[in-house]
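Listing 4. Sequential folding, example run.
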Amino acid sequence: MNSTDFGDPLTHLVILSVLVVVIIIVSLLSNVLVLICFLYNPEIRKQVPGLFNLNLTFCNLLLTVSNMPLTLVGLVSKAQPGGDGFCQIVGFLETFLSTNSMLSMAALSIDRWIAVVFPLRYHSKMRHKDAAFVLGYTWAHSMSFSTVATCLSWVGYHRLYASCTLSNPRASSRTQFVIFTVFFHSFTFLLSFIVLCVTYLKVLKVARFHCKRIDVITMQTLVLLVDIHPSVRQRCLEEQKRRRQRATRKISTFIGTFMLCFAPYVITRIVELFPAVPINPHWGIVSKCLAYSKAACDPFVYSLLRHQYKKTCTDIINRLLKRSSLNTSGRGHENQGNSIPTVE
């Protein structure tokens, strides 16, 4: 096999390394942009979902700067980055942050469910103190699993994922580790997935009901307007179709990205508990990269593609450009003033 063949280990290493670098860059820039929008726009700060987005952004940013670069170092050097104590701290952070981010997504889905299904009672059911209570639970939930794993020395460098994460090198405590791993993924990934499905499917059901009511009113109006131009009628019908598809597309994006990014890694961690089942080392890194890629997707899925964040980004850019143009014109006037000859 030639060295240029895709099957060459060096080619795999380069591709995976580039993939990790791209995820780090996109995740860092997009999450920083969400944080800037949150700090710039007071309306975003006033909204309850803004707290959940802030917590998710915080977890993604910390994961990006603490865990992803060390995974890249472990991938390139094929060795543990740092000592055992340092790796345990990094593994604790990885377990805590990944759990916290999953639960934050579940909290956002609950918030949307209350807003859509109970719109008149939303402000009484989901206040800032209620959001703070939910976030307190996500932190306590995440901290408990991370602390237990660290205290039992079930956190360390795992060669299959080139990362400091959940790992148990001791055969004496294998049974306990298997039970802990199953419970951990059941009460983080599976719990969050169930909450996402239940809440967003309820939201989709309500959205389709409202779309159907709007469609009925629209069709009745079109029937009454006999002299309406055919092109206007066609645009109304096309808008009906887009309205129905928009809700389905958003719900599919929320649930689909969660499953696409986290499911391969979680399934691999469960399969890994059975020693008789071999796992390709390249697949271990790929599944880890998919889990990391959620940190790069979240800013777009939950924030940056929304109208309010788009408008905030536009305002920030316009403000920067306006300030830049003012500075440029000011320097131009200053240069013109300096060039005026003095009368002797």
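-- end of first protein; second protein begins --
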Amino acid sequence: METFQPRMRLRSAVTPEEREANNKKIPKVSKDTLPYIEFIGKIVYETDLIGCAMACDELLKVAKQSEEILVIGFDMEWPFSFKTGPGKTALIQISPNLDITYLLHVSEMKNLPAGLCELLAHPKIRLTGNNIKNDIRKLARDFKVTDVEKIIENCIDCGVFANDVLSFSRRWSLAALVEYLLNMRISKDKKVRMSKWGVIPLSKEQMIYAATDTYASLKVYLEIKKLKNDPSLIEKLPQIV
């Protein structure tokens, strides 16, 4: 099984003996013993255009009043068929912080709320998630979003950010990032992941699954930011085996 550990900087200056000694200091953690990450904060679930618009207006108001850049967790869900492929975006998840997640059920909408598009493209907003730019491109195709390039400029891909800070060149899944950086597991229960995301209302299991994805994305981003600010912490990351 593949294991990962942070690369040491100035590798040529480290002797084999020193490298072996350093490796022995790095704790090894079994993947099977890791606890599951789950969002337990407040979920705001909106299913119609007016409710979604009001939620977006609240978030947009916070962005406009903020003096700093706001990084928010972002993800989407859509139905999938092995016969027809991916369906239209059904759910948009937004975590403005670690305590609340907005679930916007857009499956029955022809157009997205104007406030949502304005929020995603706002200069004070940054969206973070895994493979997030492709999600935005899909959203633009599904709903004919016009500011797609501006929104993409606001995206921080967790995998790319992790590679930059950890000096890796790896294609990350959200599950792998959660394991490596948070020492936790994220549930990817196929029954929920492949469920009918377009059907209103969502089940409790679907809500928790969806909210946990954006919550985990935001936690991963914050952890990478911490490692960037203090690179000495990188060498203390455990090996997940």
